[in-house]
């Protein structure tokens, strides 16, 4: 997992061959002005989802993980808190191939971290995360889905 400010995203482009596409998109677009929806950046390898998320309490948020894709999550209006756990510490869970998603309803969050507006979090396949923890009922966020290479 990586937490940093968007102005520093360029320091991480060497981590994945598709990250330069994400960096260019962030540089060339004002994410906060994009309408909610899905944006295809490079086929099935790089996608962007702008959404109005529903805020959850720590007890409502559920840990999730992805095997094929890396999440780059960016709060656009308010800070967002995430529950974190190492995938190795969680019980096995069903994997939904079509959504590249596993949920850990009985998983134990090990840490919480808050990402500020102007920041980003990168979640790799080994990083289980419980998103959308917020005091706000709804908030706008960006999620880049990047193929794990």
From TrEMBL:
<dbReference type="InterPro" id="IPR037012">
    <property type="entry name" value="NanQ/TabA/YiaL_sf"/>
</dbReference>
<dbReference type="Pfam" id="PF04074">
    <property type="entry name" value="DUF386"/>
</dbReference>
<dbReference type="InterPro" id="IPR004375">
    <property type="entry name" value="NanQ/TabA/YiaL"/>
</dbReference>
<protein>
    <submittedName>
        <fullName>YhcH/YjgK/YiaL family protein</fullName>
    </submittedName>
</protein>
<dbReference type="GO" id="GO:0005829">
    <property type="term" value="C:cytosol"/>
</dbReference>
């Amino acid at each position: 997992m990586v937490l940093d400010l968007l102005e520093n995203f360029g320091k991480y482009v060497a981590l994945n061959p598709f990250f330069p596409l994400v960096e260019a998109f962030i540089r060339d677009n004002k994410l906060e002005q994009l309408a909610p929806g899905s944006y295809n950046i490079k086929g099935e390898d790089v996608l962007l989802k702008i959404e109005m998320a529903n805020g959850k309490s720590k007890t409502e948020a559920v840990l999730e993980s992805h095997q094929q894709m890396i999440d780059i999550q960016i709060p656009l209006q308010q800070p967002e808190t995430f529950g974190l756990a190492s995938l190795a510490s969680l019980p096995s869970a069903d994997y939904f191939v079509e959504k590249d998603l596993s949920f850990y309803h009985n998983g134990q969050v090990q840490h919480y971290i808050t990402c500020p507006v102007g920041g980003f979090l990168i979640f790799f396949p080994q990083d289980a995360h419980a998103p959308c923890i917020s005091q706000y009922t709804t908030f706008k966020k960006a999620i880049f889905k990047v193929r794990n290479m």
